[in-house]
Q: What sequence folds into this?
């Protein structure tokens, strides 16, 4: 992102930018930053085109790119979520790739995509005349600093501990986090300090964190809390089928973690092997102490059986999942 920031600051631009990845917040941020740097607001109407979706017309894109800018150094064309740089559309992708070789120097194209395939011919062509910028989910450390700065800019105080709690209970997605941060800032209108109690009271926690909490109550044999957590999920219109699948996923993580931990893998090695964050592995190890491997295998089989019965109409979904929770809270 440093090169992208330098382009924006120095107003020295590539003819093609490909901004891709999972982090929508950063993709939107740099789309706006580049647009503002390339074209002034008063000239945007005459020099700016945006095409979005997998059915966009390539001829219209080429016509827009071929049009000379009006009272501006550049004409800007943004192509969003087209799929042209990933699975592609044979004729459209081929025609656009051929065109890019002779595109006017006065035109700048910005592709905004979730996924790309750099093996495609069009991506290889872009690599010769443009630049690629991947926007993936940030690390916990980066997110903590980002959160601290937002609260500081709004005259609110939050420590790294609370910021980390917010991330792990809400999301690693910056768009989702920003929405919850704004809720906290509005809520704490007359008080500067953000606490964990504030986060619990105001923020919408992710389903993943709620399932994690549910499994914790089950592992600690806290029936009342486990059922209450499940009923709250149901009240919030979470499908019992989704809850079941996420319970199964968590049991699978606990089983895999327990197996590798018993084989003397350390936390970092387990995290790497399973593609998980270290803190998830640490918590799974704690939870695994309350379940034997035999019980975990049985739980996964029960989840599979219930899943099948719900899908085939042999069992009611809400009650079946509740009985599963009761069984593995008391087993």
A:
């Amino acid at each position: 992102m440093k090169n992208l920031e330098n382009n924006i600051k120095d107003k020295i631009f590539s003819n093609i930018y490909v901004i891709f990845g999972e982090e929508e917040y950063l993709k939107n941020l740099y789309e706006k930053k580049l647009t503002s740097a390339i074209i002034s607001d008063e000239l945007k109407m005459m020099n700016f085109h945006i095409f979005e979706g997998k059915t966009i017309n390539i001829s219209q894109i080429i016509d827009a790119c071929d049009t000379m800018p009006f009272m501006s150094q550049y004409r800007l064309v943004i192509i969003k979520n087209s799929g042209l740089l990933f699975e592609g559309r044979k004729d459209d992708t081929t025609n656009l790739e051929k065109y890019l070789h002779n595109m006017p120097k006065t035109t700048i194209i910005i592709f905004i995509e979730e996924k790309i395939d750099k093996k495609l011919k069009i991506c290889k062509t872009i690599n010769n005349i443009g630049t690629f910028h991947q926007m993936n989910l940030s690390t916990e450390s980066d997110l903590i600093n980002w959160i601290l700065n937002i609260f500081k800019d709004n005259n609110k105080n939050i420590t790294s501990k609370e910021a980390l709690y917010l991330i792990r209970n809400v999301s690693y997605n910056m768009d989702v986090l920003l929405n919850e941060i704004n809720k906290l800032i509005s809520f704490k209108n007359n008080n500067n300090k953000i606490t964990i109690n504030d986060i619990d009271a105001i923020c919408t926690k992710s389903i993943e964190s709620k399932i994690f909490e549910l499994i914790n109550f089950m592992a600690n044999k806290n029936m009342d809390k486990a059922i209450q957590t499940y009923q709250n999920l149901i009240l919030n219109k979470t499908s019992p089928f989704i809850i079941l699948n996420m319970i199964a996923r968590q049991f699978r993580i606990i089983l895999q973690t327990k197996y590798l931990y018993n084989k003397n893998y350390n936390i970092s090695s387990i995290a790497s092997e399973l593609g998980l964050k270290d803190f998830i592995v640490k918590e799974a190890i704690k939870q695994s102490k309350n379940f034997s491997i035999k019980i975990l295998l049985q739980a996964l089989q029960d989840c599979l059986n219930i899943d099948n019965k719900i899908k085939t109409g042999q069992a009611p979904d809400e009650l079946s999942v509740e009985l599963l929770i009761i069984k593995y809270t008391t087993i």
